[in-house]
Amino acid sequence: MTIDRRTLIASAAASAMVMPTIISRAYAQEKQLHIGVYNSALGKLVQKEIIPAFEKEHKCRVFTIEGATLSNIAALRATRSTPKFSVMMMDDVGVPQAKQEELIDKLDPAKIPNLAKVYKRFLFEDSYGVGFNISSAGMFINPQKTTGLTSYEQIFDPKYRKRILLNTPKNTQSVLMLIVATALATGKPLKEAQYLIDQGWDKLAQLKPNVLTIYDSEALVLMVAQGQADIGGIDYSKSIYPHAAKGVPLDMAPLKEGSFTGINSMTLVKNAPEPELGAAFINRMLDPAVLEMLSSQTFGAPSVAGINFKPEVAKYLAYPDTKMDEMGLFTPDWNFIIPKRAALLERYNQVFSS
Amino acid sequence: MSGRLEGVGAWVLYCVTAAMMIFILAPLLVVMSVSVSDSYFVTFPPQGFTLSWYAKVLQDRDFLDALQLSAVLAFSTTMGSLLLGVPAAFALVRGSFLGQSFLKSLVLSPLVFPALVTGLALLQLLSSFGSGDARVNLLIGHIVVTAPYVVRTVVSSLQLMDINLEEAARTLGASRMKTFWRVTLPQIAPGVAAGSLFAFMVSFDNYPISMWLANSEYSPVPLVLMRQLVNVFDPSVPAMSTIIILLAVVGVLILERLVGLRRAVAI
Amino acid sequence: MTDVAQTTAQAPGDLDERSPWRLSLSVGFLALPMLAFLSIFFFYPAANLLFYSFLSQDAKGIIGRPFTLSHYVHIAEVDLYLKVFWNTLQIAFITSIAAIVMAYPVAITMVKSKPIVNRVISLIVIAPLIVSVVVRAYGWQLILVNTPTGLLNWLLLTLRIINEPLELLYTKTAVVIGSLHVFFPMMVLPLASALGKIDPNLEDAARMLGAPWWKVFARVTLPLSIPGLVAGFTLVFSLTAGSFVIPVLLGGTSSTMLGNLIEQQIFVVYDWPFGATIAVVLVIVVFAINALSMRILEGRRFRRIAS
């Protein structure tokens, strides 16, 4: 392979040019842990509030990539032959797929003692994934401007022409919107509609005139607070309540069709470098004190029992876990939906991007 | 230069030019003006006045790391592009061999190749070789798109150059090296300067190549900005932007003093 | 590689020892380092990408044989891709034309005014190049916001030029405005360079013969500036067609571009073969349009000069 050798020579020459100028970082000899976090405020919290202390304690340097479920799984696939990441965050929806593709490992309670504290319903696929922050998912509004929104049917009203922000088809939330459209088209409840999603596309397409833009970033929910749009979604309460708690005019809309769960989870990568350190990180994330901090900031519920929250935080949380059932939060059958995910993305693009 | 403008035509030209200058400056000024806004989210007109966003940004390690990386990367890219591009320009102007014009279009082809695809193709190549150092990958990717700019600017100044001067120097007994350094180089200096300027700028501002080749450890400024824009809505993004705009203005003013920007027109 | 560059750099000196033919050939070797570099890091990977577009992917996400044309068939069959292609071409083409129209006055003013004016214009045109495209698109976001909180709407409403806020952000128009802003220098600079090379006496002569300014422009200035125009057009067209940031930040549902679909295929779906296929088609289309425009523009120049 002449090309290999040439490349080597070229890259050697190239690196020789950069080397003297990049002052080698002081932590070069330390252990490195690569983690995929969420590209959201939650990911930022992990980076700013959890990782620095963890680095200090374990004398390591933690690097993060930020992404949503699908792109985090894509990162695992891309590094399948030479695993780089140790811990990967993804929604509960991604766990069955990542397990089936043999990208992740079973979580070991011996190495992650805090697993014992986790509510059983948040251990997925026989402990291949563990939830750590649970939101509800639905439409969000500016309560000062949009009132009387009680059903998903209303967002199709022409009075909202170009006034709705739609979550990107790259995110899990887009699938939830399709289930809603199916439920409206078929008149069936969400639980049954999820198996009929092929029948929901026509209804979903009717939303197009009302869509101002497809939003890709959690920060854009503030466009609704600013009045650039009236309604947004589907999104997680953790993207909305932190702003609401600071007095920004944003709220989740109470819709009669019900809401979904959004469960942020973690997985341990198969054949990961630094598996012990990775397990230690997951254990740290599941520490009740850490989860309490995350919940107080994101207003998503923790996955372990026995935490007491102040009333002004508790009112936002589906906590303890039985409150989820009282609220009628619904978790779709991901094993049914996930094999269709790539096709759903294309179809979504087809409906909205052309 | 003669041929000054007069009459109605001149006024039309001046008005359009002035309008375009406003068009170019407007978004930058807007970004700068909201960076001192004392509000939870960016809004126009800006409310209040605060420098706290700058304080926040200047402590942001990701941002500072990115600034350093981008500066070093742009500088190395410029050096690499000169090393490859200047000799290639000589070959294209001074040589005469079969397929010369074909060679020229080959060498310039990365300019008209969608950069996004260049980056994608490189990512695929480099990951199949297992080249893990993002800095090297970024450098290679950036040189691919910047070296042709150097070729282009140096070619145009070589074409304008009076070759008799070199011959005169040689006849008067100057060595080859001396002729190159004392006669040739000063004449093509504007082209080299313009090419370097472009290589530096294109590298510093590159997104479509970097988006594929950067990783969590090494992300250049445009990627970090984009990530910030996605994650936060407060005026820290305009503050970062303003810092970059000011750096750019200072850098370009210094260059203008040193070499004169008119030469960059040679692209 | 550095060594190669240095040893060959001495080659042009062999003036007297060799025949002119050998001299010019040895000068030709100076292009070798760059050619080698581009072969490894540009031509080979580009060819490899083409190769990838014929591969298939199994259920576990492993890419390999059998070879297939199914990705190309898929692109042709699903109208999403056709529409996005059309969007991309439309946006790139309108941006390039707008850039040409706006660049002529600026470039002519640059070339024909006092040095100080020239310097100021150069500064304003060039300095933003180093300011990230992300910042510039973001600036346009703030200006084009569809409610009275956007600068433009706020201004127009305050001046009572309009009564209802305009819908600009998240439209194709916004993408064109952003692209024009970002790639405008790539049109002005080659154009100014070409205009600077025109002998001013030619224009003066035409004017003295009584030709009005627009006729001077159409008959003398325009034809002689075609090389700069071609360079600028191909740059702006290619850069716009391959953009990613601008449609993400300024575009809406109707302005998705091919770059965005490629990114989705690679980073979200991890379908390399299909991502490669979209990329290949994008490249082919960009090259075809560039070649076509060059032929038209340069053909026009030859006709003009002949007549």
Task: Offer a concise description of the structure.
By secondary structure, chain B is an all-alpha fold.
Helix content of chain C: over 70%
Radius of gyration of chain A: 22 Å
First-to-last CA distance of chain A? 45 Å
Order of helices and strands of chain A: HEHEHEHEEEEHHHEHEHEEHHHHHH
Provide the residue-averaged pLDDT of chain C.
84
How many runs of DSSP E, i.e. beta strands of chain C?
A: 2
What oligomeric arrangement do these chains adopt? Answer: heterotrimer
Mean pLDDT of chain A equals 86
- Give the overall shape of chain A, derived from the CA principal axes: globular
Total of DSSP H or I helical runs spanning 4+ residues of chain A: 15
Q: Tell me which protein chains meet in the greatest interface and how many residues each side has.
A: B-C, 104 and 104 residues
Describe this structure in words.
The complex is a heterotrimer of chains A (354), B (267) and C (307). Chain A has helices at residues 2-18, 41-58, 69-78, 95-100, 173-186, 190-193, 201-205, 222-226, 237-245, 275-285, 288-298, 311-314, 322-327, 334-337, 341-352; strands at 31-38, 60-67, 87-91, 104-105, 123-124, 129-141, 164-167, 211-215, 231-236, 251-252, 260-269. Chain A is of the alpha/beta class. In chain A, strands 1, 2, 3, 4, 5, 6, 7, 8, 9, 10 and 11 form an 11-stranded mixed beta sheet that branches. In chain A, a hairpin with a 4-residue loop joins strand 5 and strand 6. The radius of gyration of chain A is 22 Å and the shape is globular. With 267 residues, chain B is mainly alpha-helical. Chain B has one domain (55-265): Orthogonal Bundle (MetI-like fold), CATH 1.10.3720. Helix content of chain B is 73%, strand content 0%. Chain B has 11 helices and no strands. In chain B, helix 3 packs parallel to helix 6, helix 6 packs across helix 8 and helix 7 (163-171) packs antiparallel against helix 8. Chain B starts with 6 loop residues before the first helix and ends in a 9-residue tail after the last helix. Chain C has 15 helices and 2 strands. In chain C, strand 1 (56-57) and strand 2 form a beta hairpin. Chain C is globular and about 75 Å long. Mean pLDDT of chain C is 84; it is low at 1-19. Classes of the chains: A alpha/beta (354), B mainly alpha (267), C mainly alpha (307).
